[in-house]
Amino acid sequence: MDTTRRRFLGRGAAAAAALLVGTGAAAAGRFRAPRCLDDPFTLGVASGDPTSDGVVLWTRLAPDPLAPDGFGGMGRDPVTVDYEVAADSAFRRVVRRGSAVADRALGHSVHPEVRGLEPDRWYFYRFRAGTAISPTGRTRTAPAPGVSVRRLRFAFASCQNWSDGWYTAYDHICNEDLDLLVHLGDYLYEYPVTGAVRGVRADSWLRHEPRDLNGYRVHYGWYKSDPELRRAHASFPWLVTMDDHELADDWAGDRAQNRADLDLLAPMFRARRAAAFQAMYEHQPLRLAQLPAGPRIRLHRRYRFGALADITMLDTRQYRRGGSILGARQREWLVDGFATSSARWQIIGNQVVLGRTDHDAGAGAALSADAWDGFPAERAAVLSAAAARAVPNLVVITGDRHENYAADLRADPADPSSPVVAAEFTGTSLTSGGDGVDTYARGAELLAANPDLKFFNAQRGYVRVEVDRQLWRTDFRVVPYVSRPGAPVFTRASYVVAHGVPGVVPAGEDRIRRDDSPPPSTLGAAPGGEIGAVG
After folding, report:
1. What are the strands, taking DSSP E only, across 32-78?
2. How many CB atoms within 10 Å of residue 7?
3. Is the pTM of this model over 0.70?
């Protein structure tokens, strides 16, 4: 046995209490891994939802993640999975050890919630099942609540249809100096998997739309087989939510929209929803608080980055009813948060475009009922509440559109005379839609029809954000193609929001002075914006 494995197998007095993630019960004993178990960590490792003293870790045991039965090549028996967290990548300074039980009920996934870590610093983690050791992941805790934070750097991404192109953008994200990554939905596409763009052929059971738990599990297994995606998960803590394609295109509440599923009875669609939600939980670094209960999952939650910023993650799919995109309880929770937060910046993580988007440059108006344009009264209520409560520095980050936008948000987006109260940055797709273009006729039409829309671009990529006490900066990072690997990345445009001045301005046109000293190292315990749950 090598010394690395011997160190891993060691147990100290500081070992964390084991957690049976599937049941929430404390583990009374150990469950051995099968002796013939091949590499069980084919799907990699991940971390997410960090607080100032901890983080949730994730892996799923799946030696054969594409097995058509959805069980990843695992048997029926539970397996004890050990984990350790260290202050260094060589694991010489292990600070927490513990174990969790991977069982069949949750696809042999584990989500141990590690506590007792120091705030505002990087850590390294790994898992063991039997004699197999996982790849090493890197994560970071939040600064303590109320502590002054010099900066927060993160990227946000969405819409990554595997069949549409290569995940080269994730390689570039991994080379960024970031504190975390926010994924705003469409992580998975329920479409049949086709490998024509990538030059591979998917197994027959992947070439149809999933409708049950096994089908969704295998789809996730295929997506997570991508090495760039696994590397991105292992590089930073993630905040994840869903949009529609994790379940079905344009679904809303208890109904599938614009689909053949419309003829299904509501109970049948709720069963499909439960399957999709469970598969999502099994494959993402989500806490026990996000464990689905049948067709329900709580994904709206709030996080704090010291005194610098709060992030409020919304769910704009699950609670849609009549004229509401959020549902009454989520809307009240969101508005109440405006009043109770003392953060310098308020960030809303949002799935579908919040600002008014007229798709007709003529005299009429063509609006998307699937976005917030389909719920104008609720949108006006939320933004008016932010204005009435004098919310400082409100910025909305959005996915879904496969296009980059920078836009002002008014208290009533349908009324051009109402005041600008916030900014919205919409990020393009990572791959969905194929290579994309810089701009085309649609972009010119949108800019002409929407005076509050300041920027349009239709290439692929992600959005990088840096925020300090005085300025928010958005860099639209794009790749020229996804139809083949190896694309370079460049910043197509940059926009800023100044503290106390709502609305977007092209970078270079603002007059805010910034601290030009070098940023702190991301490999030590230097100050930086992190994430901590507060609701």
Report:
1. 45-48, 55-60
2. 14
3. yes
